[in-house]
Amino acid sequence: MGRRKGDPVSGWVIVDKPVGPTSTQVVGAVRRAFNAQKAGHAGTLDPLAEGILPIALGEATKTIPFVVDSEKVYRFTVKWGAATTTDDAEGEIVQSSDERPSKNAIEAALEGFLGEIEQVPPQFSAIKVDGERAYDIARDGETVELKSRPVTIHEAELLEVPDPDHAAFEIVCSKGTYVRSLARDLGELLGCFGHVVALRRLSTGPFGEEASISLDKLKEFGNSAAARPTLWAHLHPLETALDDIPAVAVSDQDAARLKQGQAILLRGRDAPVLEGVALTVAGGTPVALAEYDRGELKPVRVFNLTDQGLTRTSHAASGERP
Does 137 score more than 90 pLDDT? Predict the structure, then answer.
């Protein structure tokens, strides 16, 4: 097996995605900018959507599920009067109405979507149906029968009604929530139909706008040796994705055991009280994600960071490609 191309860079890059590119294209741009061997994203943003798209490099890809499972914050605008095939402005209009809802009616309808609800994903979505993506089936002109699934909308606010045709919202929601479905369902409930015309993700789990870099800046820094330190300043440590998980300091000896797939014992009065998954750390370096069970920590995902040494601090200062 040949050596994997690129450098073994690990960490998170939080891209502020513009309207236009796909999430996969953004992953490719980040991987090229850092010359990274491996990259992946934590939650797709449609081409028409913009905002926070966390990209994991190297060993950080092992922490993607924790970011995908976390809460998201979206700001979006709905246009009333038309339902589309895609539930956004890209699709064809399939139903229309001259009705327009009042601000009070919108606020009252929105309250009905708070908490855990059953939501049917859009026809054009990445949900798999019999092994095929729903959007591929929908593009072939077939109607996709998608089952509803439980999602949770923790907070929802009507921000403004700039004119009778539009309304702007902000929501805090669980993973798996489709803003396009919410717009569609709101429009149906209000009897006027509706679809999304603008969508921005403000945050995903611990990652928000303050930690982000625009796609244009990322490409600019990646193409300039002089700007490389600035680029590397936007590489966040792997463990920033694990803010909600307890961290346990372990000895070098225990770290070696965990890396070999062996469990370690937590003994004595000073042993931490744990439940579920914990991040084990030795000398400030993440070692493994481990499951706590009856006094033992059993490794479930081991990080190979000590072999790499390619971090923000070790290479940002040089201005050279690591």
Answer: no
Instruction: Locate 191 and state its tokens.
Output: 């009897």
So which residues are the catalytic ones? 46
Question: Which SS3 state, helix, strand or coil, does residue 208 take?
Answer: strand
Range with top average pLDDT, 71-85, 214-228, 257-271, 290-304 = 71-85
Contact predicate 88/236, CB 8 Å: no
Q: pTM here?
A: 0.87
Average pLDDT, the chain: 87
pLDDT at 53: 97
Q: What is the pLDDT of residue 322?
A: 35
The residue with tokens 């303050």 is 210
The whole-angstrom separation of Cα 34 and Cα 52 is 19
Model pLDDT, residue 59: 96
- pLDDT band (50, 70, 90) for residue 309: very low
Alpha carbon 62 to chain centroid, angstroms:
14
For residue 96, the tally of other CB atoms under 10 A from its CB is: 12
- Listed in sequence order, the residues at least 6 apart from 29 whose beta carbon sits closer than 8 Å to its beta carbon are 15, 21, 215, 218, 219, 222
Q: Which of 176, 193, 177 is nearest to 185 (CA)?
A: 193
CB 80 within 8 Å of CB 165: yes
Where do the domains of the chain lie, and which CATH numbers do they carry?
A: 11-69+206-239 (3.30.2350.10), 73-204 (3.30.2350.10), 244-302 (2.30.130.60)
Q: How far apart are CA 51 and CA 74, in angstroms?
A: 9
Quick one: CA dihedral 27, 75, 217, 212, positive or negative?
A: negative
The residue type of 297 is L
Rounded CA gap, 70 and 175, in Å? 6
Angle CA(27)–CA(54)–CA(86) in degrees, nearest 5?
75
